[in-house]
């Protein structure tokens, strides 16, 4: 929200007050509180008839400092609140020397000169990261009496801001006004399904505003050189999180708000959907599944969208008996005959025609208005009401309906909607309606995720969720929502996904081919490449199917080849998934996340890193031309073996069988031995693809065990010394291979049992089971 009229004046009807100085301090061992008048006080009489802000300063974890600014403290405490995780055993240190007061939490410090005009300096390693200056802490009262607490933090010259959830507007948020407010706005507007009051910058820190309701941001806009955020409340709480790298910032942020769960290995395979309003029944499903098998396209999950239930009755959690007369048998056949997992669509709404409406109303499980009536409207479903997840009994009631489906054989749920939550209602637990609007999705997704964890076991739960807020990363996976079916929508989807990744979300997907409309064959094939080089991959549309043979035979080949490529990459991809669960580093990474010291990477939003070692630049044009940037070093095209020298921009043209997919200099990419499915023994028969190894460097490659969060099935160490490359293996369960991409080589003379074969990509050296050491001599080339 904007409060000022230019630099000098306030907007009409706005009275703003800002902390001017420190009048008093209360110091505790690990925190302090500042009492700040909103004007400079020189005599006692000036303490009358004027506000005094209370500013509390503390640290919940190393590298994190919290600030809570309060005007009037007598407001009733209404939920919900974000669940924050403090660091066990952490204690900040407070020092005072004359008028200088400092709170230190690891490398991050907050410095205040209590004898100077108001200023909060957040510093690290002798450098000021950001400051709250003259208008940095305050409140504003509008003509209608509404009260807003606000803060401003400085931006350095050239500093760039990212995050704030899944936003489809420009990737760099400087110059934008952003409201953290859930909305069903598609992917081509300033509205967002996933709003997160967290931003980070390219200067080594991030800021999380701990308020679940509407947070209004003015990023380098209302006040140039400032990030302003405000809430309609008497207090405002925020945390500054130090890096120094962007990965470190996300590590601290997800430690505070919750780590992403690790999705099951099978969820990384290809998902196929019925699509939305298309006509389908069991025969349609079987035709699709058979068609994929006949065309040699491995399929991992089949998804039933909305009309698996009867129209006007969403949700009643009952299969339409005319279309699916034997759901248990159908699901059993899909599993036994095709090895598929099954996903079904749900939402948190109960239509009036659903038999569950009367049941839920009778028990008081639906959200009500102040007069006691059930809140209803006709948007989406006729007479629909909203399940009140703040009521434990309502939550359990909803969960019981899902358990019936899991007992039938459903493996996961697409948790659609959760954004259009009314504010003219009364919640069971007394939560504030404005605060609950954004937070509702957290309770919704958590409820469903808990059912799946209970039914399928630890590590087997996965959603396909559309809405989320801070902390929602704990319940993956999230997808980008309703996009159009053209290249522009494909690019805006990627922008949103990269923005979400910089907001703490580790796993993200999108509708391959686009949702609204029908893609051209050119768009479909390029989107298939992008989709199968994403965290999770789903073919889904609105009014048209997304089976590849509906486009052309080349689309079939592209879908088959890139699905199988993803399966071969699973040892690499699942390790990247583990990193997301361990540290909050997303699988799909904006270039700035991996290359924070390369200014050319700071604004890139049409390419990304998939894990730490693969650069992906989707093609967004019908003619196949793509412009992309290559950071410093010798990169290797994963599909062709061609070496590409960075740093610099490249313009190239690609057929539908390829795209810019480059391996990082010195990287070792493990390829699994199977391409038939996502889940198999990734370590058995693995091939280590070695790309431009750096002399003197050792690369450690951990091959995960499917479904395991931390442990590795095998560990390989690849080292180059001069013209010798050695690989040492620990725990390899069977034979393994090394492909020295782009190099001629022969087995070394140290007794390794390798044999060598020259391939189009380089030299392949294979060793038998039980071999723990390989030596190769490079022959150049």
From TrEMBL:
Catalytic activity from the UniProt record: Hydrolysis of terminal, non-reducing alpha-D-xylose residues with release of alpha-D-xylose
InterPro entries: Alpha-glycosidase_related, Gal_mutarotase_sf_dom, GH, Glyco_hydro_31_C, Glyco_hydro_31_N_dom, Glyco_hydro_31_TIM, Glyco_hydro_b
EC top class named in words: hydrolase
Keywords: Glycosidase, Hydrolase
Any single biological process term in GO: carbohydrate metabolic process
Domain Glycoside hydrolase family 31 N-terminal: 56-217
Domain of life: Bacteria
Ranges of residues in domain Glycosyl hydrolase family 31 C-terminal: 584-669
Entry EC number(s): 3.2.1.177
NCBIfam families per UniProt: PRK10658.1
Family: Belongs to the glycosyl hydrolase 31 family.
PANTHER family: GLYCOSIDASE FAMILY 31, MYOGENESIS-REGULATING GLYCOSIDASE
Protein name: alpha-D-xyloside xylohydrolase
Origin organism lineage: Bacteria, Bacillati, Actinomycetota, Actinomycetes, Kitasatosporales
